[in-house]
Structures are given as C-alpha cells and as structure tokens.
Structure to design on (265 residues):
C-alpha cells in the first residue's frame, strides 16, 4: 500500500488497447512483466470490469489497468496503443472477407425430397461470423470489432431494421389489423406467444439462470434485437447480451430451415 502511494516510483493507470497486433491475445501473451516490468490488474470492457488473469483474451478498445515503474509509463502506453482515433476504425479487409465467406457458405443447397435447404444470404454470414468470432484473429486479420465501433454499428443496424419493418408492414397492418381475420390471428398469436415465452422463462429459471440472462435468452428466442435493446436500457448487465447471443443464432437458423420445409410441403 505504501509503494502505491509513491507515484514518483510506481504509476498505475488505465491504458486503451488499440494496437491491432495485441488484439485476440491473452494477458500472459502481452509479456508486460518481462518486457516492461509492469503488471495488468484489471480490464474494463464496455461497462464490465474484468480480472486480468493470464488466460483472459483481449479485444481492441479494452482499457487495461496497468501497474508499472513510472519511468516506463511512456513505453507501456506506446506498446498498448492508447490512441482514441483507432477505436472507431473498422477493418474493411476483415469485414469484406468475412461477408464474402458468409455468402459463399450460404450458396450450397441440400435437396430433401421436394424441399431445397440452404443457409442463404441471411444465415450464411451469421454462421461465418460465429466461427470468426471464435477464432478472434487469423494472422494479421482481427475479426472482432472494437467495442465502441461494434455498439455504433449495432445501433445503426437496429434503427435501419425497425425502419424497414415499419415501412414494409405499415400498409398491410392498417388494412388487416382491425378486420375479423386480423383480430382472430392476433388472438391466436397472443396466446401462442404468451405460452411459449412463459415456458421459455420457466425453463431458464429452473436451470438457475439469472434474470438478466433470462431476459437475453427470451430476446434471442424471439429473434428480435429491439427486445435486447430495451432490456439493455432497463438493466445495465452484460449477461443480457450473453443470453441473447447464446440462443439467437440457433433460433434464426432453425426458423430459416422451418420456413424452407413449409415452402417445400
């Protein structure tokens, strides 16, 4: 404790990780102790504070709390990057290659009787994104977006999605919503949705999932990012996004396959 009070000897601060060569590597692989006589103690990722254990994988835009000799502060900062301008940058090469690979795996078709199954341009990029997100980096290519850039693109995508849904369905909704057929359909959908959502919540709670994670699982089951955005606005907890990501991809792929099966009947 007395040593930490000696800021003329020891410095400790949060340093922004913007060096792309370090993204996707573990804290141990940084080699802060061997290279600079420094020690990473905490990692701030978005609104989460993480313990900087040796196996923790780092991402661009992480804020790493480092304890270091004061005379080596500049070199540690330069090593990690600490450049705000690079936080908002998105690698066009990584994104382009990822999308191209996703479209390619969506092309192959499997014929089962009279039904043609394929991932298509929707599920193909989704599956490829999951694979690349697991890899995190391949050589010089970093697949994981910086946190702030990720949140910005996510918000823009959500707004465009909701706007397109509203523009596409507005006329049909006005025409059908208050007709006899529309009211019957609404009643059936309401009962079915409430029963399935209640079952989903019950199973999640029986499995010991927390409320924030259950909210994310429900949003992923529905497959609507607007629900996730609302849950995040009410509860500032990373488990909402974790639950959403856990179920969303599987739910989307199953729905796409089910629609193709129905079309083939």
């Amino acid at each position: 404790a007395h040593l930490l009070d000696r800021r003329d000897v020891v410095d400790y601060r949060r340093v922004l990780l913007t060096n792309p060569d370090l993204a996707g590597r573990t804290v141990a692989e940084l080699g802060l102790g061997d290279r600079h006589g420094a020690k990473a103690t905490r990692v701030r990722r978005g609104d989460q504070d993480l313990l900087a254990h040796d196996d923790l994988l780092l991402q661009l835009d992480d804020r790493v709390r480092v304890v270091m000799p004061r005379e080596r502060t500049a070199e540690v900062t330069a090593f990690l990057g600490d450049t705000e301008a690079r936080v908002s940058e998105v690698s066009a090469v990584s994104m382009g290659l990822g999308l191209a690979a996703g479209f390619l795996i969506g092309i192959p078709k499997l014929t089962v009787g009279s039904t043609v199954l394929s991932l298509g341009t929707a599920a193909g990029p989704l599956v490829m994104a999951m694979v690349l997100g697991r890899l995190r980096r391949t050589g010089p290519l970093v697949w994981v977006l910086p946190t702030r850039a990720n949140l910005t693109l996510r918000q823009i995508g959500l707004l465009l999605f909701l706007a397109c849904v509203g523009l596409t369905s507005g006329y049909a909704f006005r025409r059908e919503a208050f007709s006899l057929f529309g009211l019957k359909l609404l009643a059936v959908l309401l009962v079915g949705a409430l029963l399935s959502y209640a079952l989903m919540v019950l199973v999640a709670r029986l499995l010991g999932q927390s409320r924030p994670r259950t909210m994310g699982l429900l949003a992923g089951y529905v497959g609507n990012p607007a629900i996730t955005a609302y849950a995040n606005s009410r509860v500032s907890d990373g488990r909402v996004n974790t639950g959403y990501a856990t179920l969303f991809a599987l739910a989307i792929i199953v729905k796409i396959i089910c629609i193709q099966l129905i079309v083939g009947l």
